Amino acid sequence: MPDKLKSRKLWIAVVGAIMPIAGQALTDEISIEKALQLSVAVLISYLFGQGYADGKAAPVSETRE
After folding, report:
1. Rounded CA gap, 2 and 51, in Å?
2. What's the CA gap between 2 and 38, in Å, rounded?
3. Mind listing the pLDDT tens digit for each residue in 21-42?
4. How crowded is residue 20: how many other Cβ atoms within 10 Å of its Cβ?
5. pLDDT band at 59, cuts 50/70/90?
6. Is there a contact between 31 and 21 (Cβ–Cβ < 8 Å)?
7. I want to staple 13 with a disulfide (CB 3.0 to 4.6 A). Which of 6, 25, 46, 56 is the partner?
8. What values do phi and psi take at 47, rounded to 5?
9. Spatial contact of 17 and 45, defined as CB atoms under 8 Å apart
10. Could you give the CA distance from residue 65 to residue 53 in angstroms, rounded to a whole number?
11. What distance in Å separates the CA atoms of residue 9 and residue 46, rounded to the nearest whole number?
């Protein structure tokens, strides 16, 4: 788990998820609904990207029957 905290992808996702909410709090140019939608989109993108990367890194096991 500590290795995951060193991941650049994780920290970019965290910052990317926080920025729309912070932007909404600091200005009224974006609604809270849109800010939350953007934050969730960043987190979902991270999850899919990390899942893809983990899947590509996993060893392939072939079973023949």
Report:
1. 18
2. 27
3. 898 889 888 888 998 898 999 8
4. 20
5. confident
6. no
7. 46
8. -60, -45
9. no
10. 29
11. 7
